[in-house]
Write a structure and sequence with these properties.
The protein has a single domain, classed as CBS-domain (Roll), CATH 3.10.580. The longest helix is centred in the last third of the chain and has 24 residues. It is elongated, with a radius of gyration of 20 Å. Strand 5 and strand 6 form a beta hairpin. The chain is built from 6 helices and 6 strands.
Length: 154
């Protein structure tokens, strides 16, 4: 199975933010849409990914700093300050096994899919798991149907 097949099943709805957006605006947008990541775009180019992982990291750091003195709020922090710059990417023709390996190697739960300079979508680890499960269920049904119709030896 290729990445483009997962995108076809999942859909290609994309949510993006600018690096200049505040972290507060990005988090509110992610929460309202019930999504775990947004693509960070600048002048039509992918420049990063913002996931709840980066948000948690910055909140933990700010909490530690807060013990020493006042710290900036999420409304004072830009997306550029916390995003994962230059994330690993997938291509539409990439096989799912290669995608899983790349996600594990890069510790990315969300991976942008690029065709050249064009963003095609974002694949999550959840999307991969669902696609593999559906593919295996289809194969199981086909095998069971094949075995059921197996001719008797005579």
């Amino acid at each position: 199975m290729q990445v483009k097949e997962i995108l076809r099943i999942k859909g290609t709805t994309l949510y993006t933010v600018s690096p200049a957006n505040t972290l507060a605006d990005a988090v509110i947008s992610m929460a309202e849409r019930d999504i775990g990541s947004v693509v960070v775009m600048q002048q039509g180019r992918l420049v990063g990914m913002l996931t709840f992982r980066e948000v948690i990291k910055v909140l933990a750091q700010r909490q530690k700093e807060n013990r020493i003195g006042p710290t900036p709020t999420m409304a004072q922090i830009s997306v550029a300050e916390v995003m994962e710059a230059n994330p690993a990417i997938a291509t539409p023709e990439m096989e799912v096994d290669e995608l899983r390996a790349r996600m594990l190697e890069s510790h990315q739960r969300y991976m942008p899919v690029m065709e050249g300079e064009t963003l095609q979508g974002v694949i999550s680890f959840h999307d991969v798991a669902r696609a593999v499960l559906e593919e295996q269920a289809f194969e199981n049904r086909m095998l069971k149907g094949y075995i059921k119709d197996w001719p008797s030896e005579g």
